[in-house]
Design a protein that fits this description.
Distance between the termini: 16 Å
Strand order of the largest sheet: 3-4-5-7-6
Largest sheet: 5 strands, antiparallel
Structural class: alpha+beta
Shape: globular
Number of helices: 8
Radius of gyration: 18 Å
Order of helices and strands: HEEHEEEHEEHHEEHHH
Number of domains: 1
């Protein structure tokens, strides 16, 4: 993990160092849109350029965020060039519209390397490889929501490293650049629900989501092409019609480098 994650701390009155307290969503959005980017460090993994950045607020407090510039995106044969940062933001908006709120606050803004997505950093709970595996193989409804979300947004890259719990135990999903393709692309490591009935509370949320289609199209129009929006609505309708988790194929639905 880059040193930047470890260095930025809010100092208490005695000059000690304590973690910066978590932000509510509205405050996180304000920090992302209004703060100055004062430091940037490349995260040395992944096929696209990703940076840990420090955001300094007018009151002097600093927060961490993840910055993914359009200029750092590697060309892909199955996604339009220069659109992954937009998909990161669209995934956040869909999570928010569903009231599931497990995608950290994300915006589009200019940074040191041009326009890109900027997502508030969530400090993960310290976990061992074994405890991480055990938790994410469970069948809690919070995990089921994330699984349904991946089918809804057509997530082609749900690796275990893209699932985390913060220090309070709340679950989060990150890295949503490979989403919203109009053609089926789901690849995931979360297989425990395949073919099972979708829980009723989740179906109710999906129905409310479908009923807000006009608002969804307005929200997502700056980030997705019309065929991709049409496909999102079609996937919603199919999940509601089937009322079960799609059956996955081990030859097609496991992400490369699944950890």
């Amino acid at each position: 993990m880059p040193d930047l994650f470890l260095e930025i701390r809010e100092h208490d009155e005695d000059g000690g160092s304590v973690p910066t307290p978590p932000l509510c969503e509205d405050e996180a959005l304000q920090v992302l849109t209004e703060s100055e980017i004062t430091a940037s460090k490349l995260i040395p993994w992944g096929s696209n350029y990703t940076f840990a950045v420090a955001l300094e607020r007018p009151n002097g407090r600093e927060h961490l965020a993840i910055y993914k510039p359009r200029s750092g995106e590697a060309p892909l044969y199955d996604f339009p060039d220069g659109t992954l940062y937009l998909r990161e933001t669209a995934a956040y908006l869909v999570s928010k519209r569903l009231s599931w709120d497990f995608v950290p606050a994300t915006v589009v803004r200019d940074g040191p390397h041009g326009v890109g997505s900027l997502q508030i950093y969530v400090e993960p709970m310290p976990e061992s490889h074994e405890s991480t595996n055990n938790f994410w193989q469970g069948c809690q409804i919070e995990i089921e929501r994330l699984v349904v979300f991946d089918h809804l947004v057509n997530n082609a890259d749900r690796k275990l490293g893209h699932c985390l719990r913060d220090r309070s135990g709340k679950i989060w999903g990150i890295d949503h650049g490979l989403t919203f393709n109009q053609y089926p692309k789901v690849r995931t490591v979360l297989w425990q629900f395949t073919g099972e009935r979708i829980s009723k509370p989740i179906l109710r949320d999906l129905e409310q989501f479908r009923q807000s289609e006009p608002e969804i199209r307005v929200d997502l129009a700056p980030y997705l092409a019309t065929p991709e929006l049409d496909a999102l609505i079609a996937r919603t309708e199919r999940l509601l019609e089937m009322k079960q988790h799609p059956v996955l194929n081990p030859r097609r639905n496991i992400p490369y480098g699944w950890w």
